[in-house]
């Protein structure tokens, strides 16, 4: 039997504890997980792609199953990236009903582009339902305490970024 491999894509600008929760949930289902950081030209990230790669790698570095995780970046179509990596599943997070419509449209488009790749939706634990990278950045921008919402390395990076 072959190993199951999934791709968990996102901008991760920055990675939050909600993302971490979904990574842990996905690793209970799949043998291997690729955390795929997208270069989305439509978004204006606070952190560079290199910074986001570093933060994600550091955030998962102490996981007991670290060898089952790959952190990579991609540009272009997600289904092309997944195919190139040999993944048959895309993992997406749903926090609220408002996420569903957008995520459903993405899943349907991905299915149209490549019928061999499925999308699975996971919900984070209840305490992470309200967290998004956007909300975390806004709070940090104005001096709010984001400890407990992001990994410690990300909290430090946010402090450095907004101290300038």
Task: Walk me through what this model shows.
The protein has 164 residues and is α/β, with parallel strands linked by helices. It contains 6 helices and 5 strands, in the order βαβαβαβαβαα. A 5-stranded parallel β-sheet has the order 3-2-1-4-5, with helices on both faces. The termini are far apart.
SSE topology sketch:
Layout: E1 5-10, H1 17-29, E2 32-38, H2 49-60, E3 69-74, H3 78-85, E4 89-93, H4 97-113, E5 118-122, H5 133-141, H6 152-163
Parallel strand pairs: 1-2, 1-4, 2-3, 4-5
Quick recap of the structure?
This protein has 6 helices and 5 strands. It is of the alpha/beta class.
Terminal CA distance reads 52 Å
Care to count the β-strands?
Answer: 5
CATH H-level superfamily title: HUPs
Number of helices: 6
CATH architecture: 3-Layer(aba) Sandwich
Which structural class matches the secondary elements? alpha/beta
* Beta-strand content: 15-25%
CATH topology: Rossmann fold
In N-to-C order, the SSE pattern is EHEHEHEHEHH
Q: What's the alpha carbon Rg, rounded to whole Å?
A: 15 Å
Q: What number is the mean pLDDT?
A: 94
Strands of the biggest beta sheet: in what spatial order? 3-2-1-4-5
Principal-axis shape equals globular
| Total number of distinct structural domains | 1
Q: According to CATH, what is the class?
A: Alpha Beta
Q: Which key features would you list for this structure?
A:
single chain; about 160 residues; alpha/beta; Rossmann fold; 5-stranded parallel sheet; about 20% strand
């Amino acid at each position: 039997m072959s190993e199951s491999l999934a791709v968990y894509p996102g901008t991760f600008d920055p990675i939050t504890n909600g993302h971490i929760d979904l990574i842990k949930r996905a690793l209970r289902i799949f043998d291997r997980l690729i955390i795929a950081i997208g270069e989305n030209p439509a978004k204006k990230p606070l952190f560079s792609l290199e910074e986001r790669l570093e933060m994600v790698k550091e955030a998962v570095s102490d996981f007991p199953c670290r060898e089952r995780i790959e952190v990579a970046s991609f540009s272009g179509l997600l289904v092309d990236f997944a195919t190139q990596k040999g993944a048959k599943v895309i993992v997406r997070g749903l926090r609220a009903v408002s996420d569903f419509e957008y995520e459903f449209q993405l899943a349907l488009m991905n299915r149209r582009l490549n019928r061999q790749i499925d999308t699975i939706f996971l919900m984070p634990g209840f305490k992470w339902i309200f967290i998004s990278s956007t909300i975390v950045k806004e709070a940090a921008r104005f001096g709010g305490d984001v400890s407990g919402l992001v990994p410690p390395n990300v909290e430090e990076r946010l402090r450095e970024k907004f101290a300038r």
